Amino acid sequence: MADAEEILLEAELRMDGAVTAAHREFATIRTGRAHPGLIETLAVEHYGMTTPLNQLATVNAPEARMLTAQIWDAGAVQSVVKAIQSSDLGLNPSVDGQLIRLPIPALTEDRRRELVKVVNQKREDAKVAVRNVRRHSHDELRKAQKNHDLSEDELRNSEDSLQELTDKHVEMVEGAAKSKEEELLDV
User: Fold this and answer.
1) Digit-coded pLDDT (tens) for 140-150
2) Which of 66, 82, 103 is the last residue of a domain?
């Protein structure tokens, strides 16, 4: 049976993963400035398979309000254009051979407020993910205590450490969400 240190280490790794996923999600929210993370993970239906855009093209931000995607396979260009148009990013691609240019339009005030709501939803999802890790780890600690692998004192100390980990990771998610909101509202 796993001891308390192993359970806490596993919890920390999984919480770190949830925070990293939240950062990735926040990066996909458009702020009016070009950022490759905006479209890198866009799902493209190509040859009957769904593939992230960054596996079909090189994505760059040559200017503050322009993204480019240099498609490696000429047959994938139309699939990429279709994926961009059907996404909720509001981008209008222009095709030049295997190069797709994506001008980033300025955000309206209404669109900024909508995007803040999206940030809040992603914030809540990330916090739920962190709390789910806490719940799972807490159950593991209880099982270890029930199997006499942990004493009552060790269980209590481990629960306190687990709560500290949870609070730290929720704070990290909050900080990332807050900075994304500021970025959206200050553009």
Assistant:
1) 999 988 988 88
2) 103
Report whether 136 contacts 13 (CB < 8 A): no
Is residue 180 within 8 A of residue 119, CB to CB? The reply is yes
The structure tokens 């961009």 sit at 84
- Report the C-alpha dihedral over residues 22, 120, 172, 12, rounded to 10 degrees: -50
Which residue range is the domain that position 151 belongs to?
A: 4-27+108-186
The tokens of 57 are what? 């093209």
Among 103, 129, 161, give the residue marking a domain's end.
103
State the CATH number of the domain containing residue 78. Answer: 3.30.1360.40
CA atoms within 13 A on the CB side of 84: 25
Give per-residue pLDDT as tens, 87-112.
877 788 889 988 999 888 777 888 78
**Are the C-beta atoms of residues 187 and 31 closer than 8 Å to each other?**
yes
CA terminus-to-terminus distance, the chain:
52
